[in-house]
Design goal:
With about 60 residues, the protein is mostly helical. It is about 85% helix and about 0% strand.
């Protein structure tokens, strides 16, 4: 079960980094609506913290030699 949670946490962190970059690009280049871009950036930071925390809490080096 721990390996599954590490995988889910890692994927969440990866997706949140992509969403963060999309939010930055949208904020700088594309959008006139700054509030939506800032919401995307905020939610991606929150998702990264949750994903990284889940990944780090369940990661184990015991199977590696």
């Amino acid at each position: 079960m721990g390996e599954f949670l590490v995988l889910i946490g890692g994927l969440t962190a990866l997706i949140s980094v992509i969403a963060f970059l999309i939010g930055i690009v949208r904020l700088i280049f594309i959008s006139d609506d700054k509030k939506l871009s800032l919401k995307i950036i905020l939610y991606s930071v929150i998702a990264f913290i949750i994903g990284f925390g889940t990944c780090a809490a369940n990661f184990s080096l015991s199977g590696m030699h």
